[in-house]
Structures are given as C-alpha cells and as structure tokens.
Specification:
131 residues, mainly alpha
Length: 131
C-alpha cells in the first residue's frame, strides 16, 4: 500500500522523497491513533472493573439482626431478609433511595427472582428503613 502511494506521488511529478516522508509520517500518525484507541479502551474497561469491584465489595452490608424493626412492617422485613439474603448479603437500606431500590428490584422482578407482591413489600420496608 505504501509503495502504491509512493508511485502515485512519483507520477504526479512531485519530489518522491517528500512524498515518501509524508507517507511515513501518516503511517506513524495512524499507529499512534491506534495505540491511543487501545489505551482509551483499556482504561475505560479497567475503570469499569474498579467501579464494579468497589460497588460489590464496598457496598455497606448489614446483618439481619441490625435491621430496623417496626411492628407494622414485620412481614415486609421478613420478606426482605428471606428473599434478598438467599443470593447476596443484605445491603443497608440507607445506601439507596426509593428510586434506586425500585429500579434494582424491578430487575429482579423481570428475572422472576421475586414476584410483584414481594417487590412491593420489600420496597415498602426499604423506604421506611432508609429514613
């Protein structure tokens, strides 16, 4: 490819050395651009991995015995403990707001991990306990 471009430069009547040097510079610029893309993608991926590790391991966990209790919400509290603790540690209800909890639980509901009534009970408890 470089030789074809070099020949085109010669046909046009310009100095072949200047054309050749221009091609070499363009070739290096392309290599640098590729390297920059690779570094950008690499740092984006490592940034995501660090964020995911941070969110998984640094999320404030809570022991079920330390959860707030309310006589009116005993059933909802129990649903939260039984359903959520089967797959992962319980997350402190104060860590997220109602909107974030709703989105998270919507994902679990879509995956058929919990049903509609359990979703409602858990959100109701988390909203109260997060205050």
């Amino acid at each position: 490819m470089v030789e074809q471009l070099f020949r085109k430069q010669q046909v046009r009547g310009s100095n072949p050395l200047v054309g050749f040097l221009k091609l070499r510079i363009m070739n290096y610029e392309l290599r640098i651009a590729k390297l920059l893309k690779i570094f950008i993608i690499y740092f984006m991926c490592t940034g995501c991995a660090v964020f995911m590790a941070f969110s998984l391991f640094m999320t404030p966990k809570i022991d079920p015995d330390n959860l707030k209790t309310n006589e009116e919400l005993t059933k909802e509290r129990q649903v939260y403990i039984n359903k959520c603790q089967t797959c992962h540690s319980l997350i402190n209800p104060k860590y997220k707001n109602k909107y974030e909890w709703t989105q998270k639980l919507q994902k679990y509901r879509d995956e058929n991990i919990i049903n509609d009534s359990e979703t409602y009970s858990i959100i109701k408890y988390l909203e109260w306990a997060g205050k």
